[in-house]
Amino acid sequence: MSQKEYVVGIDLGTTNSAISWMKPDGNVEILPNSEGKRTTPSIVSFTKDGEIIVGEPAKRQAVLNSDKTVRSIKRYMGTDHIVKIDDKSYSPQQISAFILKKLVKDAEDYLNGKITKAVITVPAYFNDSQRQATKEAGEIAGLEVLRIINEPTAASIAFGLDKSNSGDKKIVVYDLGGGTFDVSILEIGDDIIEVISTSGNNKLGGDDFDQKLIDFLAEEFKKEHNVDLREDKQAIQRLKEAAEGAKIELSSKLETEINLPFITVANGQPLHLEKKITRSKFEDLVGDLIQATRIPMENALKDSGLSVNEIDEVLLVGGSTRMPAVSKLVKEFFGKEPNKGVNPDEAVSLGAAVQGAVMTGNTDKDIVLVDVTPLSLGVEVKGGLVQNIIPRNSKIPIKKSQTFTTAVDFQPEVEVRIFQGERTLAKDNALLGSFKLTGIAPAPRGVPQIEVTFDIDSNGIVNVSAKDLGTNKEQSMVVTGRQKLNSDEIQKMIKDAQEYEEQDKRKREEIELKNQAEDLAYQMEKLLNENKDKISEDVKSNLELKIKDLRDALAEDNIGKIKILVDEIKQESMKIGQQIYGQNGQNGQGPQDPQGPNDYQDPQQPQQ
């Protein structure tokens, strides 16, 4: 008799992970691991015998086997980071897959069935390659990944399970986990959960709070004994565990004592670490990290177009939100007490399980998720500008197209360079990838029509295509594995976009002026050449001289001179019109306006 197959929801966390399923009665249950715990440490260790152990057993032996123990691998998802153990190398996807296999195996033993499908969660601010890497980890673990959904969205599903929460509500999910921070603003209805805006920091979490305490303890010990514990691998591992335990304890107590006997040896003498830490001292150490969550809150609220008075509920998700100072900051910012109705460690996994059940028809619930993309996406155009095609916080899935044209006569190909970010100039944003569309039919510049389409699926993974509407030739790519953004860079993009908004505006105006000047010179030369017999010599020579001056000004990047010459050439060009259409004008019939040049943008010219 074949085993029954199950679909689960997995919160693949930086510090701890959890797995859930929806029972036939409609209730959602956290599946315990083989140790009987409801969450599993996201830790992988490799023993001397070559065995791979995961979770609590790996955590227990981490002190004596620190060189072969891997923590917080989630922070490296989507990067080329490699974990080297002896003569073998492991990618972040592989390490994550070991964690997923442990979760699945323990859950299968508990259910006495087979788990084949899963919905896996990621931070809302994960970029394209991080999402793809998470999906790959699931596939490596032998799972069919039904969907990648954002952690705050999953938490809001869990919140919505409470029947008392019926009716439309605008909620904030403040998600401070072990390695990442997200804040999302959502609208929850009876059958739909719609993300309005999101912001965050992929390099801020409980690990950073622990590190502040580790550094403090290490410095205090160094002052007393002139020994730096951070240079001792076993000592630092014990210190990490003690700091994490103290942080957790100080969420419910005003004081804790760290006692680590025989932490190290100096001059043949064993040394011990004993230190009392008060909550106020710890909050002083981590105060800057807690305050760092304020900027993403401000960004998310601003992008949502809502005021704090329009927010109905604030949910705290992630173990780090148990710190009283975090709850206090959130209460001060939104002006209301955070809702304690969801378990911050379990809500994300529970919500993912509901979504998995909905997608496989294992429930009569009908929940529609409408998520957003965290950063703007666009292509580079003439002058090094970025033409945004999909603005940040656009609802996904989404598909948008825009038509561009060539920059030079008889251009045989264009390079489509894809960028993500909020700055005006391409070089200030993150390059996601590029491809060339070749075989464009010979034509003067401005004639070919090239349609560029961005298609973001429900997992937030980006597909880009370019099509020559004249020849129907098409080229496309999936934007994966090339994204090198980290959270600091993301935050810098948004901050820079605000700080340098005026500077960017001036640069854009200058580039657009130069593009206009180049086009004007080109059109005037063409007009002179095609109507040489109808234009008097003095008008022709005067215009040619001004065109030459304009090209010289462009070469010198003399913006002031370019502005003057553009105006002068426009004025001078009116004399051409009078001479060409003079006869019509005498008959009392004004010349009809010809159809203006197309309003397409010029993509970046291919590198020669």
UniProtKB/TrEMBL annotation:
Note the SUPFAM superfamilies from the entry: Actin-like ATPase domain, Heat shock protein 70kD (HSP70), C-terminal subdomain, Heat shock protein 70kD (HSP70), peptide-binding domain
Spell out the Pfam families in the cross-references: HSP70
Q: Which residues form a coiled coil?
A: 222-256, 490-537
Annotated spans, Disordered: 577-608
In the record, which positions carry Phosphothreonine? 180
One function term, GO molecular function aspect: ATP binding
**Which keywords does the record carry?**
ATP-binding, Chaperone, Coiled coil, Nucleotide-binding, Phosphoprotein, Stress response
Tell me, using the record's free text, what induces this protein.
By stress conditions e.g. heat shock.
The reply to whether Nucleotidyltransferase figures as a keyword in the UniProt entry is no
User: Does Chaperone appear among the keywords?
Assistant: yes
PANTHER family hit by this protein: HEAT SHOCK PROTEIN 70KDA
Q: What is stated as this protein's family in its record?
A: Belongs to the heat shock protein 70 family.
Quote the function comment for this protein. Acts as a chaperone.
HAMAP family annotated for this entry? DnaK (MF_00332)
Q: What is this protein called?
A: Chaperone protein DnaK
Lineage runs: Bacteria, Thermotogati, Thermotogota, Thermotogae, Petrotogales
